[in-house]
Amino acid sequence: MQEQLHLYYTNDLHSNFEQWPRVVSYLKEAKASSSTENNSTWVVDIGDHMDRVHPISEAFMGKANVELLNDAGYDVVTMGNNEGITLSHQDLFHLYDEAEFEVVCANLHSLKGREPNWLKPTTTIKSVNGIKAGFIGLTAPFNAFYELLDWHVSPHFDMLKACIEELKESTDIIILLSHLGLSEDQEIARRFEDIDVIIGGHTHHLLRTGEHINNAVITAAGKHCSFIGEVILTWDHDNGKLISKEAYATDISRQPKDLQTEQKLQLLTEKADSILGETVVHLEKSIDVQWFKHTKIMQELTETIKNWTSADIAMLNSGLLLDQLPAGDISYGDIHRVCPHPINACVVEVTGNELTEVVRACFKKDFTELKLKGFGFRGEVLGRMVFAGLHVQTAFHDNGEEFVKEVSLPDGDALKSDITYRVATADTFTFGRLLPEVAKSEVKDYFLPEFLRDHLATTLKEKFSKS
């Protein structure tokens, strides 16, 4: 006898709730068609389902995401970095208290001496005919953030080895839910031949028909749930082994929306608006926002970051603010709308020479007009950089492009080439290659859990409120 096991999965939704009714509709149809007498069907999520860019996730601190996963009938999920490092310790500790599914994350541990009741390294599910599938969860090790929130992420290869040794004795199939990224998934497949399936996420890669390395099939479905993934495993009961592993990702852009889910999201939106509707500040005048020009609001916000972090200098890109703020009462929802990014302040140490190179790079057209996607940034373009504790004199080339003529301290002194300066900025620039001198700094002090929008609220109350 042969038995088919169907695993449907999502990854990296990032609270793109416009797509969620299609996801639920597709899953309902898929489960109905694949669940038969000799088939089992499971639904799993690979993390970053939550993203506080969305008002619903912001208002409920991720618990509405859990409610939506419950409603959709998920069986197992693992955690992404957006669940892990954008919530306070207490909010994450209780995030999955009401989950009706298993939460597996083998390499996450609390530094406060007590683990959440929902947190498990592995779980096992039986098929309709008794096949035991063991699930392991792993998340990306952003310990520079996690440890500031009293969590720690252990090395995933060490944790994986221990989990596999345990599951080998008690299960027939081993499935890894990996929020580590494609390159790590490929290396895991090369090192651990006992893993049958690796369902991935984090790097937003799309593998339409999977990738086979060693004994494992690796798969992932991109981002924002434009695709839904499926893994089909065929088990031969007579010979006691898997005889087929298939992986697919299906475009659901034309999938009809589930009406019940749409109604649920509308209700959650109304509740979120109420929660975020409390007035934070009253503005006598509207506040202008410009991405490519110097504005008072960006200058004051940059000054706030400099003072709050006790840095020598601060720099923030104007694209962080997405819209104007009108005169009148301003709620936290308004502030979230204008500054939705899950971005924290960070202080790096750079030399005078390095800082000068950073400033020059920030005024290049390719930088200011960059349509950045990722690294926490949820805006349109990076925009003009604004500085506090630093004077930057610019001029224009004949072609109209701006360039830096001189960089100096507020007292007029030049930056000293070999002196180290503490520079506060958005943590966005500590990743990737946007500003190499910032990213490669050996000192990176992150300030959590406050987001930049929390500092925007402080700036509005202290610098722009009605006296």
UniProtKB/TrEMBL annotation:
Q: Which SUPFAM superfamilies match?
A: 5'-nucleotidase (syn. UDP-sugar hydrolase), C-terminal domain (SSF55816), Metallo-dependent phosphatases (SSF56300)
Q: Which keywords does this chain's UniProt record carry?
A: Hydrolase, Nucleotide-binding, Signal
Q: The Calcineurin-like phosphoesterase domain covers which part of the protein?
A: 9-205
State the Gene Ontology terms under molecular function.
hydrolase activity; nucleotide binding
What range(s) does the 5'-Nucleotidase C-terminal domain occupy?
286-428
| One Pfam family of this chain | 5_nucleotid_C
Q: Which GO terms describe its biological process?
A: nucleotide catabolic process
Q: State the family named in the UniProt similarity comment for this chain.
A: Belongs to the 5'-nucleotidase family.
How is this protein named in the record? Trifunctional nucleotide phosphoesterase protein YfkN
Q: Species name for this entry?
A: Oceanobacillus picturae
